[in-house]
Design brief:
The chain has 192 residues and is of the alpha+beta class. Among the domains are: 23-58, no CATH class; 79-161, Multidrug-efflux Transporter Regulator, Chain: A, Domain 2 (Orthogonal Bundle), CATH 1.10.1660.10. The chain has 7 helices and 6 strands, in the order E-H-E-E-H-E-H-H-E-E-H-H-H. The strands form 2 sheets. The protein has a 3-stranded antiparallel beta sheet, with no helix packed on it. Strand 2 and strand 3 form a beta hairpin. The longest helix is centred in the last third of the chain and has 28 residues, at 164-191. The protein is elongated, with a radius of gyration of 33 Å.
């Protein structure tokens, strides 16, 4: 930086920099209606000084690692298994139909077949797996244990090996769930 020489011996004036700390003002730019629906609101910090203003956007980080089960509660879908009368009307169900019933991949059904000895689907000459209605009911129990009760595979194997008590308990839970759905439908019909 060039400075002017002072011929009369006075010290040159030094330019002073403003050393006041910047003011930080927090503004939440998300409308209140969106705060309820969006889990991660974005906050914007405005840093101002006397000469210039700078805007910095800071977003909240999403948590990494395992997520809470409560965050998945909205993602749980119901399985579309027909009633026993309709289920037992066919002798065999192809693996693709069973996968659609449970809303899972075919590879998951093949994996469960390897892991659980109680599942024995019949294979045709081509190698396609055909599930009997009893197998579909057992898959329903396995699905309930693994996906809804969050059992491990080993825990589900032990539960199934316990025998009749476990299946009776599961059937009681299923009948109570059916009654609850029926009552909720009645309640929805009355409120209209």
């Amino acid at each position: 930086m060039l400075t002017q020489l002072d011929l009369f011996g006075k010290e040159p004036k030094k330019q002073e920099k403003h050393s006041t700390p910047p003011k930080v003002v927090n503004y939440n730019l998300v409308p209140p209606a969106q705060l309820v629906t969006e889990p991660t609101p974005t906050a914007v910090n405005l840093v101002t000084t006397e000469k210039a203003s700078v805007t910095i956007e800071v977003e909240q980080r999403k948590p990494s690692g395992r997520q809470a089960i409560s965050s998945f509660s909205a993602d749980i879908t119901t399985i579309n298994i027909p009633d026993d009368e309709i289920l037992f009307s066919k002798s065999y169900y192809p693996i693709s139909e069973v996968a659609i019933m449970f809303n899972v991949n075919i590879s998951l059904l093949r994996f469960w077949e390897k892991e659980f000895d109680v599942l024995k689907p019949r294979k045709n000459r081509k190698g396609d797996r055909l599930f009997r209605p009893e197998d579909v009911k057992m898959l329903k129990l396995i699905y309930f244990l693994l996906r809804e009760k969050k059992y491990t595979i080993e825990g589900a194997k032990v539960f199934i090996k316990k025998g009749k008590k476990s299946t009776q308990k599961f059937e009681a839970i299923e009948s109570l769930r059916q009654i609850r759905l029926m009552l909720l439908e009645l309640k929805a019909g009355l409120s209209l």
